[in-house]
Automatic annotation (TrEMBL):
<dbReference type="GO" id="GO:0005829">
    <property type="term" value="C:cytosol"/>
</dbReference>
<dbReference type="InterPro" id="IPR014721">
    <property type="entry name" value="Ribsml_uS5_D2-typ_fold_subgr"/>
</dbReference>
<dbReference type="InterPro" id="IPR000705">
    <property type="entry name" value="Galactokinase"/>
</dbReference>
<keyword id="KW-0808">Transferase</keyword>
<dbReference type="GO" id="GO:0004335">
    <property type="term" value="F:galactokinase activity"/>
</dbReference>
<dbReference type="InterPro" id="IPR006204">
    <property type="entry name" value="GHMP_kinase_N_dom"/>
</dbReference>
<dbReference type="InterPro" id="IPR019741">
    <property type="entry name" value="Galactokinase_CS"/>
</dbReference>
<dbReference type="GO" id="GO:0033858">
    <property type="term" value="F:N-acetylgalactosamine kinase activity"/>
</dbReference>
<dbReference type="InterPro" id="IPR006203">
    <property type="entry name" value="GHMP_knse_ATP-bd_CS"/>
</dbReference>
<protein>
    <recommendedName>
        <fullName>N-acetylgalactosamine kinase</fullName>
        <ecNumber>2.7.1.157</ecNumber>
    </recommendedName>
</protein>
<dbReference type="InterPro" id="IPR006206">
    <property type="entry name" value="Mevalonate/galactokinase"/>
</dbReference>
<dbReference type="InterPro" id="IPR013750">
    <property type="entry name" value="GHMP_kinase_C_dom"/>
</dbReference>
<dbReference type="Pfam" id="PF08544">
    <property type="entry name" value="GHMP_kinases_C"/>
</dbReference>
<dbReference type="InterPro" id="IPR020568">
    <property type="entry name" value="Ribosomal_Su5_D2-typ_SF"/>
</dbReference>
<dbReference type="Pfam" id="PF10509">
    <property type="entry name" value="GalKase_gal_bdg"/>
</dbReference>
<dbReference type="InterPro" id="IPR019539">
    <property type="entry name" value="GalKase_N"/>
</dbReference>
<dbReference type="GO" id="GO:0005524">
    <property type="term" value="F:ATP binding"/>
</dbReference>
Length: 452
């Protein structure tokens, strides 16, 4: 069993078929039995896309799909990792010499992120080895946070093997920071909901400091997740990090425009906080300060009064230094409008008027349009899937996760669910031009899960 503090619920192995099967596979691979098991759920972000790394609140919930790891601490300094999925090869390394290759986002590197995060947090140099077997049922590269769930699971595995405790918030912050070892400049939503989730409620996740507030979802609707079958690993391309950098540059130009200390500003939320104005007013500031044409690196330098060398070495990340253009106006408009939609979504859930599902659905539809048009993180398959979901009864539908592939999330009235599932299955997965592999097809209703 595993625990990370008095508030953490423990995994009960009992006669759970999946755990028993994992135990058998562990025994077959390592010739021994696991000493404990750790679980971390995936998540679906209901609304609030690409704004956590800008400092703004998001509204995710955990899903039932998860990562499970069976663990046996050993007396050697060898870390042996196996995966029940044969597509992911075994990996072995010294527990005292963790090297994470940013150029290859291989599955085991996500485990190493969590392991190294705990190791560095406690300043440990001599760590015991472990045999670990990973079993995940979150569709990979689908926008349901399979990679972050593995990072979180690995962090908790390492903490448990060391016999140490941390709060859920501390663990979430460590895992959010350590996932950046793989080269993705994420914001912390995925790790936070993985640890802070509670059954039956979504969470408003706020940052600086990290905190979570329950958001009760309407009882008359369910959220349905559908996989576009287009895989997108955000660590394998530059799309994600370019968006992070565009938001950072937009924040600096907005700060400069308003006479703030732009060189100390990193996130769009900081500009709003320093100005002390509303999100709606920030949209007006964006209209005044930024133009809709793309910015060249040279124009950004001129606006900030710095050299090209200073831009590349002091502001841009290594993998964005050669980007020829940056769309600052569009990214800032998306972030400020999406941040406002999150707060409106929470307010509607709290007030619970009669047409709450319709209102929430419209916010989700607005979110997808903004992601598609202003943030440009959708793809044709996602757009098609969103349209199909709306056609067959969803009050709202949008991409969820980083985008460029992965899943949609739709809000569907309970009484329309059976017909909705059947029609979407036929129209998208079995349509005349559909050629998706069966194992990638995924369409299911979900309710808020928890960390257990």
């Amino acid at each position: 069993m595993a625990t990370e503090g008095p508030a953490m619920r423990r995994i009960q192995v009992a006669e759970h078929p999946r755990l028993l099967k994992l135990k058998e596979m562990f025994n077959s691979k390592f010739g021994s039995s696991p000493k404990f098991y750790v679980r971390a759920p995936g998540r679906v972000n209901i609304i609030g896309e690409h704004i956590d790394y800008c400092g703004y609140s998001v509204l995710p919930m955990a899903v039932e799909q998860d990562m499970l790891i069976a663990v046996e601490p050993v007396k050697t300094n060898t870390l042996q990792l196996g995966n029940t999925n044969p597509l992911y090869p075994d990996f072995s390394t010294s527990s005292n010499n963790i090297q994470i290759d940013k150029t290859k986002p291989l599955w085991h590197n996500y485990f190493l992120c969590g392991f190294k995060g705990i190791q560095e947090h406690f300043g440990l140099s001599d760590l015991t080895g472990m045999n670990c077997l990973v079993d995940g049922n979150i569709p990979p590269s689908s926008g349901l946070s399979s990679s972050s769930a593995l990072v979180c699971c690995a962090g908790l595995v390492t903490l448990t093997a060391l016999g140490m405790n941390l709060s859920k918030v501390e663990l979430a912050e460590i895992c959010a920071k350590s996932e950046r070892y793989i080269g993705t400049e994420g914001g912390g939503m995925d790790q936070s909901i993985s640890f802070l989730a509670e059954e039956g409620t979504a969470k408003l996740i706020e940052f600086s400091p990290l905190r979570a507030t329950d958001v009760k979802l309407p009882s008359g609707a369910v959220f349905v997740i559908a996989n576009s079958c287009v895989e997108m690993n955000k660590a394998a391309t530059s799309h994600f990090n370019i968006r992070v950098m565009e938001c950072r540059l937009a924040a600096k130009l907005l700060a400069k425009h308003k006479g703030l200390q732009w060189n100390k500003v990193l996130r769009l939320e900081e500009v709003q906080a320093q100005l002390g104005i509303s999100l709606e007013e920030m949209l007006s500031v964006t209209e005044d300060a930024l133009h809709s044409d793309p910015y060249s690196p040279e124009e950004i330098c001129m606006c900030l009064g710095i050299s090209l060398d200073e831009l590349r070495t002091q502001i841009l990340s290594q993998n964005t230094r050669d980007v020829p253009i940056f769309k600052l106006y569009q990214r800032a408009k998306h972030v400020y409008s999406e941040a406002a939609r999150v707060l409106q979504f929470k307010k509607i859930c709290e007030e619970a008027p009669d047409n709450v599902v319709q209102q929430l659905g419209e916010l989700m539809n607005q979110s997808h349009r903004s992601c598609r048009d202003m943030y440009e993180c959708s793809c044709p398959e996602l757009d098609q899937l969103v349209d199909i979901c709306r056609k067959f009864g969803a009050q709202g539908s949008r991409l969820t996760g980083a985008g460029w592939g992965g899943c949609t999330v739709s809000i569907v009235p309970v009484d329309k669910l059976p017909g909705f599932l059947a029609n979407v299955q036929e129209a998208f997965y079995q349509g005349s031009d559909a050629s998706f592999a069966p194992e990638k097809q995924s369409l299911f209703a979900t309710k808020p899960g928890d960390f257990r």
